[in-house]
Amino acid sequence: xxxxxxxxSSAIRNVSSAQAKMLGAAVLEAGTKxxxxxxxxxxxxxxxxxxxxRISVTTxxxxxxxxxxSLLWQRFxxxxxxxxxxxQSPTALTDFTLESSLEQQVSLHDFRDxxxxxxxxxxxxxxxxPLSLGNLAAALNELEDNAxxxxxxxxxxxxxxxxxxxxxxxxxxxxxxxIGLTGDxxxxxxxxxxFGVFFEQRAESGPESLFFDHTATIMLVxxxxxxxxxxxxxxxxxxxxxxxxxLLH
Length: 249
Fold this sequence. Notes:
Layout: E1 6-13, H1 17-33, E2 36-44, E3 49-57, H2 61-76, E4 85-92, E5 97-100, E6 105-107, E7 115-121, H3 128-143, E8 150-156, H4 164-171, E9 178-182, H5 185-195, E10 199-201, E11 212-214, E12 218-221, E13 226-231, H6 237-248
Parallel strand pairs: 7-8, 8-9
Antiparallel strand pairs: 1-3, 2-3, 4-13, 5-6, 5-9, 7-12, 10-11, 12-13
Helix pairs in contact: 1-2, 3-6
């Protein structure tokens, strides 16, 4: 007597559009091998969820679920990230528009085909900022051709003094794939809040020398605009390159 078809659904969250294409192909291949009669992949883009429904199989549904779970983990778990903290619930960033060192306004959606490494600082920073930017430049150089898929955004916490031309001059000492962002201080604060970044002017600052305390982490944003990984200030350029080399390959 033939086995009755078994119907089930499996929820998959936070999968990018590029990954979804791979995912759909993998499901079709696995389903064919295991006797699937129908596979439907539904994209609920607004809620940022991907899932499969109406998968009728002539073999054990449990086996197929376990197989797909294993396949998904192997393909999409960020196993290459060992020097940063992978966010278990990635944050969808709200689009923003700021002035840039390119002397034009840029928005988050302008980088939809790019991975972004974002850090906050200011051009008069005496220590942490030049060290971080130097490490990011080293990572870009080590990634070589894969660096074309990556852009560095340096968001100033001193927008009154760090105007586009000043940011452009400062970042030219580090790497051509670095873009500085500035604008209204309230817009900078709103963006910093999205990234969980804190900054404030030090009380001892004077008119000739302004100093800021600020979060010095480096954040990785994927091409779909999700904050995925946070690197500590102590991370080296080589460590960043090691973590990103497989992701960008």
